[in-house]
Each structure stands twice: as structure tokens, then as C-alpha cells.
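Regression check, zinc ion case 278:
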Amino acid sequence: MIPVSRPQQPSVVLKRNAAKWLANLQTAIAHLQTVKANPSATKDEIAKAVKNVENATNKYRHKEIKDLLEQIFHGKCAYCESKVTTTGYGDIEHFCPKGNSRCIHLTFEWSNLLLSCERCNDAGHKGTQFPLAPSGKPLLIDPTDGVTDINKHLKFSWDDVDGATVVGLDARGKAVEQIFDLNSICGTRKELIKHRTNYVRQTLSVLKIALETGNSQAIALLLEHCQPSSEYSAFARIHVLPFLAHHFQIPEAMVLLKEFSKQSPEYATFVRIDQFPE
Ligand SMILES: [Zn+2]
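Current build output:
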């Protein structure tokens, strides 16, 4: 997971329709409740009312909204940083779940929409789960909120035995790690850790070549792996970018290091940003 900048303005279609869609959804929900409360309602009448709620809800699945989210998230899942095209076509995900009665008013709210892979979003993972801290704030992390220091809650770890793992460092990090099952080697996410570990292993092999030979193509490839558009770039930020900035003193790497440090004080300390001139 990496921080993602979200444009303040929603897609045109959302700006134009969100209020109308929400009013229609609330009407459909009220109608369903009325039908369900009627003892003489037939199965068909209930099914029709349920379908109306589904149709009213699904307005958010507009191509323009999906396209914009794919652009903002570089086609990657907000939570596991996999390219959504690796696992399918990706979902428009509601941070505060649309299936949670407390969040219905956020069904068409731009700031509540993320891009995620089908697996992170499915009923076996996030689904309608939205755990809260005792303070009432969400435990899960919205990478677009602009305030959460992701590196304070999650450690993007590498070792030869466990491979590339995402380790929760506190209650929020542990909620992310557990709900999305980010390190399962035998469960439903084994393909994720296998793919992620192979990807990071290859990146680190290229780093070894770069450190031994100074090969410019290897360095260029490493810099690409540190960009927000690359899969699992949270690992390259930690395990590769400091070498490019400190050891090779690549100007683009220094720019990236400073940019990422502004998003995360924890990261700034880790990469010793104070050693670079302003
Ligand atoms: Zn995912």
C-alpha cells in the first residue's frame, strides 16, 4: 500500500448525478422496508423491491468513474498494490462499505471510492467489514486520505525465507494485514504472496547487479520499480530507492525520496532524508 493523491473534483458524471442517485437509492430502500413489513407481500414483490435497491446502488459502476479511478491508482489495488489486470478487471471499492447501513449515504461519495482487486474486495476479505477503533475512527487505512502515515502502521519486509510480507505494526496495520489476508501462504491469497515475492526478488536481483557493476540499464529499471505506477512499489521505496539516492546519487531518485518523505515522516526518518540538502 502506498499513499495515492486524489483530485478534489469527482468525475463529471458523479458530480452531476450523485445527489439524484442517492435520493433514488434512499427511496428504493424505504420501499423495500415497507414491502418487507407488509405480511401479505408476495415473494415476487419482495424480490422486485430488492432488485430495485440493487439497480439504484449500482449506478456507481459507471465507466467514467472506473476509468478515473484506474488512472489515479495506476491500475493497482488500493490495498494489496497488485495490478488489477493480473487478477481480473478490478472493482470500484467503497472504503466505508455500501453494504454497511452506516455508510449508505457514502455510496456515491467521491472520497469514499477506491480501486481494488476483486479478492481484497470480496466477501471473504473486506466485504462489509469496517472495524472501528475505540475512538470511533476507522481501523482500516484509506491510502487517499492524505493524513495517514502508512509506514507507521505497515512494514514492507523482505527476507529469503518468508519473501515479501506486509506486517502490521499496530492495531491499524494488523487490521489491514488480517482483513486482506496479505501474507497467507496456504489460504486464498497464496497467489498474491507468490507473485509479490517473485516480483520483489527480481527487483532485488537487479539491485545486486547494479551495485556490483553500476550497469545503467539496471539502475534505470530499478528507478522504474520505485515509481507509484509499479506493482508493489512500497517494497522498492524501502529496499531500493535509498541505494539509488544515497549510493548512486541519481537525481530522479533524490526527487522521489523527498516526495515520498513528505508523505510519510516515518519513511523520511528511515531513509535519512536529513542527509540531503534542501
Ligand atoms: Zn488487492
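Comparison notes: Residues 77, 79-80, 82, 116-117, 119-120 surround zinc ion (CB under 6 Å). The beta strands are 91-94, 113-116, 154-159, 163-168. No diff flagged against the previous build.
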